[in-house]
Amino acid sequence: MHDKVDSLVPVLVEEFLTARATRKPSPHTLEAYRRDLLAVARLAAQRATPPLPLAELAITDLSPRRLRAAFADFAAPRAVASVHRAWSTWNNFFTFLVAEGVVAGNPMPAVDRPRAPLPQPKPLRGEDTPERLLAAVAQQAGRQHDPWPERDLAVVALALCTGLRLSELLALRVASVAGRPGERRVDVAGKGGRPRVVPVEPELDEVVAAYLDSRARRFGARSVRPDSALLVDRRGEPLRRGGLQYLVDSCYRRAGVTDRVPRGARLHALRHTFATRLAEDGASAAEIMRLLGHASLASSQTYIEVTAGQQRAAVRSNRTHRVLVGLVGAG
């Protein structure tokens, strides 16, 4: 049974963060949890009658009504995504307290939360950036310690031409690129255990074949067995998450396009570029959904909407519109 001190909200917040630390979140994530929990708790303390210092706020002071009022105060100056994140943190906090026997139930279902906004696509900036990237990666850079342009080109081309996630690329086997000539495909082990198939055009098929040929020359024919990892490092070992991210970053640097990569996107920018170009070329949301392995049509629709906005901006930039100003009714 918790005593009075142990039932104070700031104390319980630190207990929760200590428990969360076993999951190895980043220090930034832990600090975000603390900030969201204490910000709402401080507002709840101010709502008490009379107002309480945060240090004296007990968990029993947090009734559903007071939490609703505190979240309303918290939400007023903040973006939807920030409010949604704080609600999720508090929900996890109370789930922890229920499991620890500190409280009997979780009051958060009684607190409304905004719908989480769909993340906006972050494709590579610049119309010619994908082509510039591919051309640079295909060249053997003299500064590289052990250049392997066939492998680097295969990685970038696969991401740009299939839209696979990082985890999906790492899960590919040599046998994942399958099918008869003219009907080639990539068999993908998708997110959430949802398999899907992405068609492979002859040009991409040639890039992958050239990479596998170069790999056989480097490490022997046994290195390209059907059940072996499709993407490997310069030692012939399966690429891992950090290695793949570093490889893509180095490709951006070699192509001189780091300033065209949206912040935080990295490899995902290649997936978003694939989807954005599909939308620009007239693919429907349903087609994008199937090819990218989205769980909902809404995620795919964002690419259509972004493209429509870009088209309107392009039309608006036409100088002729400025000529029209003042002409209506002039006759």
UniProtKB/TrEMBL annotation:
PROSITE patterns: CB, TYR_RECOMBINASE. InterPro entries: CB, DNA_brk_join_enz, Integrase-like_cat_sf, Integrase_catalytic, Integrase_recombinase_N, Integrase_SAM-like_N, Tyrosine_recombinase_XerCD. Pfam families: Phage_int_SAM_1, Phage_integrase. Residues 7-98 form the Core-binding (CB) domain. Keywords: DNA integration, DNA recombination, DNA-binding. Residues 119-316 form the Tyr recombinase domain. PANTHER family: PHAGE INTEGRASE-RELATED (PTHR30349), TYROSINE RECOMBINASE XERC (PTHR30349:SF81). This is Tyrosine-type recombinase/integrase. It comes from Micromonospora cathayae.
